[in-house]
Amino acid sequence: MSQNNITASPGRFLQFACDCVSRLHNAIRDPWSHVSRAGLISSETKEIILNKTYRGPKTVTQLAKEIGLSQPAIHKHVKELLASDMLRSVSISDEDKKYRVEQYYEPNFPVLLLEDTVALEAVCRRIAERIAKIYWEERGELGQAFASTSLKKRGYAIEDILDYLYSKIRRTGRQVLDEQGFFPELPTHKDGSRWVYWAEEMEDGNSDTSS
To answer: What is the pLDDT of residue 120?
Structure first.
């Protein structure tokens, strides 16, 4: 599968499978890739903080006690998460406060609890099966299009790029839906970047980060 004898084309570059990889070019096709590329959850401690706060807002003091780090260390991570819009300060009633003078924090993005994903599973599965049927129906046409590419001459088979085709169709589908007004406008964050993010609650009997 040699890539030899390919004439260089000025002005062209590689767009990798995952937008979060490249540091040379700014093109982001998936609006959640910015979080990884910019390192907004760049440490295990930040991830633990988000896990500790999604079921209910907590203070720096509470987080320090539960995680086992100093308050200054936790405060540093919280400050960075606030600056990146991954965390937000929330107001809670005085009767619910354990620490009256401290700020309480929670994730600044939608968190789908396990019961939420269960509620959405059936309709998502039904849509996915309809899309999968289209993939199978169009497999022959994809094969014909592949035959006209340079990939076959370079020793590749269509099976080698099925994940690319899936990704290409998915991303193009999002672009079409975006043009049709299906998605709301991407929010602009404190640093001027525009992205969306979410998280799903998962079951893991070996994890203590969500307690």
So the answer is: 98
What digits encode the pLDDT tens for the residues 115-148? 999 999 999 999 999 999 999 999 999 999 999 9
- Distance of alpha carbon 77 from its chain centroid, rounded? 20
| pLDDT (0 to 100) of residue 210 | 46
| Amino acid at position 120, single letter | L
Cα distance between residue 187 and residue 184, in whole Å? 9
Average pLDDT over residues 87-94: 90
- Cα 174 to Cα 183: distance, rounded to the nearest angstrom: 9
pLDDT, mean of residues 101-112: 95
Band of residue 13 on the pLDDT scale cut at 50, 70, 90: confident
| 149 DSSP assignment | S
Cα gap 103→106, rounded to integer Å: 10
Asked if 136 contacts 128 with a C-beta cutoff of 8 angstroms, the reply is no
* Rounded Cα gap, residues 195 and 202, in angstroms: 23
What span, in angstroms and rounded, lies between the C-alpha atoms of 191 and 1? 43
The H or E element spanning position 40 is none
CA neighbor of 87 nearest in space, from 97, 96, 75, 99: 75
The CA distance from 134 to 202, in Å, is 30
Structure tokens at 43: 């440490």
Amino acid letter at 11?
G
